[in-house]
Each structure stands twice: as structure tokens, then as C-alpha cells.
Amino acid sequence: MVKRRTIEELLIILGIIGLVLTFQPFNILGYTIGWIMLLSCTLTYVIFTLIPRGASSGRRLVKAFIKTLLIVLAVVASFIVLSILLTPHIM
After folding, report:
1. In the chain, how long is the greatest CA-to-CA distance?
2. 31-62 pLDDT per residue, tens
3. Which of 22, 32, 41, 68 is the most exposed place for a label (fewest CB within 10 A)?
4. Is residue 42 a contact partner of residue 48, using CB atoms and an 8 Å limit?
């Protein structure tokens, strides 16, 4: 069974690789892949840190991960919709 700490360390390593690919000036495909890696690893790492340590078994961890992911996406979507609705009134 893969431990939670191992997953978090793997996400950090993949995020660093994504950061290096994002900053390289040679290839646009490398930049695109690096940006996607960095975004997905960061989002996944943040969600993993929000999940309580008690959810360490496989099925409970996946269930808690999906639940937390949906909550984070709902909050982000709410901020986006709210900013779109409020922007015309600020200008």
C-alpha cells in the first residue's frame, strides 16, 4: 500500500519538474506540459493537505479526495462567477 507521505513527496517532485519545464525557454510543448503538471500537482497537493490524516485507507482516502476536490472546485467557481457578476458594477 502506498503511504500518504509518499504521494505527497511524489507530488512535490513532479511539481518541481513541472516548474523546471515551465521556465525552460527552448520548447513551447515543454512549457505547456510543465504548466499543466505544475497546476495539477499543486491542486492535488493542496487537496491532499486538506484531507484529515485519519482517512488513510485506500477507499476512504479516494472518497475524501473526491469530496474535497468538489468543494475546492465549487469555491473557485463561486469566486469566478461572483467576480464576473461584480466587475461591471466596479467600473
Report:
1. 54
2. 999 999 999 999 889 888 888 777 667 777 78
3. 32
4. no
